[in-house]
Fold this protein.
Amino acid sequence: MKVSSALTARKSVRAFTSQTVDKPLVQELLRLAGHAPSGVNTQPWEVAVVTGESKIRLQQAIEGEARKGTPNSLEYKYYPDEWVEPFKSRRKACGLAMFSTLNITREDKERQREQWMANYRAFDAPVMLLFFVEDILETGSYLDYGMFIQSIMLAALELGLTTCPQAALAEYPNVVREQLNYSTSKTLICGMALGYEDKDALVNSYRTDRLPVEEYTRFFE
Ligand SMILES: Cc1cc2nc3c(=O)[nH]c(=O)nc-3n(C[C@H](O)[C@H](O)[C@H](O)COP(=O)(O)O)c2cc1C
């Protein structure tokens, strides 16, 4: 698969078939992604691959917290408290387009909530990946991590797999660390759903648009 094809074909997949992913395939995927660059070759990534019974136990715990209304305790600030333009409109368009694909109306808070809850089960994908970073590292490692995560998503396509990166999976970091026995010195950055795309699922027909290059680029010659 050409890199350009992978870049344009990658999309967030939010419904998966029940087909499991063989462990050697996950290992190969992470080996390939491990070629991502990082400042002074720090390679700050630490990945938990959660499947089977472990996944069921973990997702029940996370979804349980969310349903109880436990406040989100993401350990770093992903989004601003106050959204301003043009980001405000882009964020709104993203949510509205997904609900409209699913025929969920603006008023139907119950279905919107259930769609959101699926996040905590990694959209029922057979594999949930969780990404940790040592606290002694700094903001730069988040740059490195982004490259690693995108590398996973691109390499996955060549292996016939699909993904959805998920900040939602890092909303209850203490529950995750406790269940998987990770030290409190490691921040849970985000997670990812990994598996085979359910091509019949409506939610997967939704595609986001992109800005034209001219809107975010200035050439100085
Ligand atoms: C770091 C990161 C975290 C994300 N977290 C979530 C999430 O929690 N739930 C979700 O449904 N999508 C999540 N997304 C997916 C974005 O909504 C998606 O990438 C964006 O709308 C563009 O669509 P595309 O991935 O299909 O191109 C996340 C994406 C990134 C890069």
About this structure: The chain has a mean pLDDT of 97.
